[in-house]
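Deliverable D5.2: sample structural annotation.
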Amino acid sequence: MNTTKRTMIWKRGLCAALTLLMLLLSACGAKSDAPATTAAPVTTEAPVSTTAPETVPATEAPATEPVKTEPPATEAPTAEPTEPQPTEPTEFVPDPNWPTGSCGDDLTWYFDAKSGRLTIVGSGDMVESDQNHSEDFGVTSPWQEYREQIKTISLPEGLTSIGNFAFYDCMALTSVTIPANVTFIGEEAFGHCKQLTQVTLQCGAVDVRWDVAFRTCVRLKEFVVPTDNPAYSSVDGVLFDRAQTKLIYYPFAKTTRVYQIPDGVTKIGEAAFLDQDNMTGVIIPDSVTEIGDNAFAGCGKLKDVTIGSGVTRIGEDAFLSCDLSEVTIPETVREIGAHAFGYALYSKYISKSDFVIRGAAGTAAEDYAKQNSFTFVAE
């Protein structure tokens, strides 16, 4: 009995031991599986990816930076092509189908109707004035047939004169450059060029009446003069001599209402402001000693004039047909030309009966007032 109990107890104990052993073995199996999964991260090539940054230090970015400094070296060659450019304008090859003809002993003209460009080649004087008048005067210029189509003009460096009425009535012409060797510009050479806005002067001293050569150029706004020009200069488009002591010509289409003549100017040239239609006032500084003939004639809107104390001469017709009702004349003035003040011209001179002259008693101002029956007010 006791032996049987012991046997049973022993078997139960053995079973319990085996069960415990099985549990232990299964537990060990589970643990061995878990490390296997963690081993995968160990084998992850994350460290390999970290080696990639190690190649970053080897970035050749610095090596490419010197390449960026190379473009400046290429800038020098780009400037080289500009050197031969001055020779380009001398290369002119006319189309055999273009209209052409002679306009001087050694001058030939060509007209490109497609571009509207009139080109003159050669050297010397343009044809005489009696062969260069406009159609209105009974004689035609060589290119008169094409004058309304001419948009640009190319004049040769060897040109020495521009004849009377040469480009009269070239209604589409907007600008022109006068070459360096021109010494004469004829009567109304650019007259009635109503689209002409700019004139560039490369020439030196020229025999010309500016107001006549550019008569009725109603859109002319400026003269352009290179700084190395030996005879002329320009300030705000107004033409002066090189020293800027003489105001030569004030473009017709300038829109300044009250113009202050620059200090240092000593003479206002003949017809310098002739027929200027925008100006309502002018201030003449003390540096000016002479106001030329017809200087402000035809300035129909000019109402106010200040004459500086340095003026000694006021030319004939100086302020003819202006809108002045009175003027103060300094006592320094010694000479006043005929019809200088107080007159308009309509086929004949007509005086303004109510015109007033102010100035010092016993001076040229009082004499002029008495001679022309104007009211004189002593100041």
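Annotation notes: DSSP finds six helices and 24 strands in the chain. The radius of gyration is 47 Å.
The annotation will be released with the project's public dataset once the embargo ends.
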